[in-house]
Amino acid sequence: MLRCTKGDRFFPMDVEPYVRVCSLWVQRPGGQPVRVVPANKLTLETLPQQPLDGSGVVHFLRFTDPQNLPEGESWGVGALRERAIKGLRETREAFRAGRGRLARVGYVSRFVDALYSITLLARGRVPGEAAGSAAITYRRVMEESEGYAYHGRVTRQEGWTVLQYWLFYPFNDWRSGFFGANDHEADWEKVHVYLAETEGGELRPEWVAYASHNYSGDNLRRRWDDPEVEKVGEHPVVYVAAGSHASYYAPGEYLTELDLPLPRPLARFFRGARGFWRERLGQYARGDAGDATPFHIPFVDYARGDGLAIGEGGDRAWDPPKIISEPAPAWVSGYRGLWGLYARDPFEGEDAPAGPMYSRDKTVARVWYDPVGWAGLDKVPTPAEAATAALERRRELEARREELGAEIGEKAHKLRKLGAEAAAVRGRSHLDARGRETRRRIAELSGDLDRLRARLAADEAVAGSLSEYADRMEAGERDPARAHISRAHRPASATELRFSRVAEAWAAVSVSLMLVIFVAIAIFEQVHLISMLVVSITFFAFVEAGFRGRLVNLVGSVNIGLAAVASLVLLYEFFWQLVVAGVLVVSLYVLWDNVRELRR
To answer: Omega of the bond prior to 327 within 30 degrees of 0, cis?
Structure first.
């Protein structure tokens, strides 16, 4: 069951009427796009017949083609902009963004967000009028035959039966309608339900995974009995984000950050510096320790669930499912192009997606050939297999324990013989070289033995744990439902949403104000440039920390930073004096230690 957000204009539909009103285009490297099939001439049967194919060629559909408008409609820029503004006004009347997007992130993110907005004006290839045109065409299609459909596929992999629900939206108006990152034609989303066979041969749902932007892995899925998985009867509820159509388990506003990657050398340096600051110095650093970039652009997904509800007990019912059979039909396997406008966006955010089976580069998508691994389930046995898998692993460890024991015995015997040899050559000057070689081999062999014995001890402990785990699984116990989640994607809390108007106003003006002050200092305070910049940065940092509740963290970090700077300054100014003092301290310590030994 889908719960959409008020103001959203596009909902899951059957791909057949979408393809029928689209035109098919070809983009050759270095050339201009060419329309090869006009609107209203394309079908699912003819779609896979891709003309003018070749290396580097991109095929794409256009839903906002001028021919898509009904007769009598004008494609004039002014008229279309007027329709777009009218549609956008209707969306904004139904939707209120609220406050808090920029107030939830720091200065760097705000600054990069501003740069992103500026560059989007230069690189944006999907104009706001496209959303208006798409809404007009979509409304016309719905008037002819209103319907809400999903495309279903059943696949089996490694003991799991996977129900793939593919949801096709005709347009993504996240940027123009809901202050998001991008707009693009077409949007393929997905919800997966993973079934496992019981001992009685029944198939029962065990896990679900809702697609959300480009996330994958353990954090994406939830167990069927997890309280976060809301259900109507046996139907899982999906909260759909306005415009982006990302899927979430609970209603709310989700902060989503777009990462801007750094060049590899800079990324390695930043990761190392971040790890030192966090692990060695124990200081606060936002995000994961493995983050390779400090630049995150914040956007909000509004998945409030206060709009149209589709499915069991909702405002609209699903049409009969459109089954993607095996082998896949030609419109899935044969068409490797994009399902909407190819905007040639270098970040690909405004390019339409490929179909269920492919990525934009025409390679087969992992979610198609490995849906179990996509959700991180490839390492999770089904409940019926859990005890058996644990016992099999225990038997493997026991077999390896015998091998390790034999290897340890052999190497220990060899070590004793080398020890005898070392004792025999000790003090024989003509055998000094052989003695050094023997001692080197003894050190290597001792290290190997230490590692083998540690491995054997760990294997014995793991074997005991596996036995206990198998007993618990056979008794019907389960692991905690959320044990696999390391970083759950949660909606903003009530506290985060209750930012004061002052905090939000500060977030809106702080970056611009900071830049203006820096320019003013550079022009009028060149004599005291460094000191004035330090004072300004300190002021902005403390005000920001106060609004974000991190003043204590900032004070601690500043103290450590100042101590490090002061140490470097002292080292530079008094280097030779410090060297002399160090030598004197060491000599006095050696003297004290030797005298203490004489007195014993």
So the answer is: yes
